[in-house]
Specification:
single chain, 528 residues, Sulfite Oxidase, Chain A, domain 2, Immunoglobulin-like, five-stranded mixed sheet, five-stranded antiparallel sheet, 11 helices, binds the ligand Nc1nc2c(c(=O)[nH]1)N[C@H]1C(S)=C(S)[C@@H](COP(=O)(O)O)O[C@H]1N2, binds molybdenum atom
């Protein structure tokens, strides 16, 4: 490669572009941290995620070692891409400016920047902006401090423009700084002169990296990585899960921290009277308290992505009726401030147990469980219980939302599950002792009538005692005692019968695409 060109344009161009992109990234992180404005990294993830087929998604998870790693890889890659594109943009800019300068050294300039250079940067910024808006269109309404989608989209779009403008301004200023030797001497810029100023610019880059790292560290502390996928199971299970131990699943890198004064919930779409409610308005409506268990579609057999709480809220039906669904409405799409969406059939949305919940076990919803309000759709997989809900849209045709687009479903009704929590069967148990077995069973909104246990791999079944059974929308707790007569290995299994009389299926089915089925089985070793 031509060494002169490298020194004169490529090197400085890349350097300037890279440092400008670092400053832009810093701006994005600051807007995210201080104002809850979604970063392109997060928006890209949300834009792409629905197109990742479930099977491939599980392969990816296996490959990188879990959802939280995948989320971080996604963020890291977009930021890396931003820096690379930014550096290349600097190269492009330098090339154009230097070519122009070579042709016409007396070019028109203001503040040392040529008109063409200015135009090129404005075009680059404008193009990046337009392309971002176009490609991120469906997720622009995301705002992590809870602005309603319309305002959120404007704020996101403004945030993008500000960040890209920082890049553009930095590119212009920095390139001028390192390439312009003070007039009037027309000696070609020496390697030495560029080197010194480039070094200074490098210092700016380092400062931007340090500041970004500090912000990233703060953001990381808020991230979902520490609790996404948290399970609730085992020996100390309580009938009502304490809020801080409730299982948790989130698509986000950082969950929303909604400012309740900004937050609204809108009822829109195919309605006679669109409505917007503030939190006070929701709380003023007639409320119900309802014990309901939630379970994730990704819960494995015997897994703990399942918890129970007493929720307080207003039946969604009240809000829908106030808005007046138009004839032909079949589906209700719930949208969250984090850009997440999911849908319910109209009949389910109108069911008196489907709530807009704002309290969990007597206190306002915790931040990571949907503060200030979430949908609660008993009997359906947890996905449908949209947290941080902000817009409820009535549609007259069926659509596919976030998870269904990935290929989950189409049936989202919970299967009957049962689980053995106690003992953990990790070690052998002594012959002659009476073994107390405990666990839970859950059948969506069908209620659990019976839980049985088998000590001979499902050949014979013994009914257990239900020690906790309150709400048909919630789990039951069961207990039984076992007095094995001989030493050896026993194959245990548990199964439940739901309120309709249907026995839990023995057929094993994978988590994807409609949730796992089959019996929770454990092996007990009894030692003489
Ligand atoms: N806005 C929003 N709502 C959401 C999710 C999400 O990522 N964003 N995750 C869903 C999933 S997959 C489940 S299982 C439940 C979990 O609710 P919890 O975290 O309160 O237990 O929330 C659902 N609602
Ligand atoms: Mo879930």
């Amino acid at each position: 490669m031509n060494n002169g060109r490298w020194v004169k344009t490529i090197g400085p161009g890349l350097l300037v572009g890279f440092v400008a992109a670092l400053l832009m990234t810093l701006m994005m992180l600051a807007l995210r941290y201080f104002f809850g404005i979604a970063t392109p990294a997060e928006l890209n993830g949300d834009r792409i995620a629905p197109f990742i087929p479930v099977d491939f998604f599980f392969k990816l998870l296996g490959l990188v070692g879990g959802f939280n790693t995948l989320k971080q890889l996604g963020i890291g890659n977009v930021i890396l891409g931003q820096l690379i594109v930014g550096a290349l943009g600097g190269w492009l800019y330098a090339t154009i400016v230097e070519r122009e300068r070579a042709h016409d050294p007396t070019q028109h300039r203001s503040m040392g920047i040529s008109r063409r250079g200015m135009l090129v940067v404005m075009l680059m910024v404008g193009l990046a902006w337009v392309v971002s808006i176009g490609s991120l269109w469906p997720v622009l309404g995301t705002h992590y401090q809870g602005l309603p989608p319309g305002q959120a989209a404007m704020v996101t779009v403004s945030g993008l423009l500000i960040s890209y403008a920082v890049y553009g301004a930095a590119l212009l200023g920095f390139y001028r700084f390192i390439s312009d030797e003070p007039p009037p001497r027309s000696v070609p810029a020496t390697t030495h002169g560029i080197g010194r100023r480039a070094l200074l610019l490098g210092g700016v880059g380092v400062a931007a990296v340090l500041a970004s790292t500090a912000l990233l560290r703060q953001l990381y502390r808020l991230a979902t990585y520490s609790y996404d996928g948290k399970e609730y199971k085992g020996a100390d299970l309580q009938p009502i899960t304490p809020n801080d131990r409730f299982y948790c699943v989130s698509k986000n890198n950082i969950d929303p921290h909604v400012k309740k004064d900004w937050w609204r919930v809108e009822i829109t779409g195919q309605v006679e009277r669109p409505r917007t409610y503030r939190l006070e308005d929701i709380v003023a409506l007639p409320a119900v308290e309802q014990e309901t268990t939630l379970q994730c579609i990704s819960n494995s057999i015997g897994g703990g992505l399942m918890s129970n709480a007493i929720w307080k809220g207003v039946p969604l039906r009240i809000l829908l009726e106030a808005a007046g669904p138009k004839a032909g409405v079949t589906e209700v799409v719930c949208r969250s401030v984090d850009g997440y969406t999911d849908d319910l059939p109209l009949e389910k949305a109108m069911d008196p147990t489907t709530l807009v919940a704002y309290e969990m076990n007597g206190v306002p919803l915790p931040q990571n469980h949907g503060f200030p309000a979430r949908i609660l759709a008993p009997g359906y997989v947890g996905e449908k219980s949209v947290k941080w809900v902000t817009r409820i849209e009535l549609h007259n045709e069926d659509s596919k939302q976030f998870y269904e687009k990935q290929g989950w479903g189409p049936n989202f009704i919970l299967h009957t599950h049962s689980r053995i929590d106690v003992p953990d069967f990790k070690g052998p148990l002594p012959l002659g002792s009476i073994i107390v077995l405990k666990g839970v069973a859950f059948a969506g909104n069908r209620g659990v009538d019976r839980v049985e246990i088998s000590f001979d791999d499902g050949r014979t079944w013994k009914e257990t005692e239900l020690t906790y059974k309150q709400s048909p929308l919630a789990w039951v707790h069961w207990k039984t005692s076992w007095h094995p007569r001989e030493a050896g290995e026993y194959k245990l299994a548990v199964r439940a019968t739901d309120g309709t009389g249907a026995v839990q299926t023995a057929k094993t089915q994978n988590i994807a695409p409609e949730g796992a089925t089959g019996y929770h089985r454990v092996t007990a070793r009894i030692l003489a």
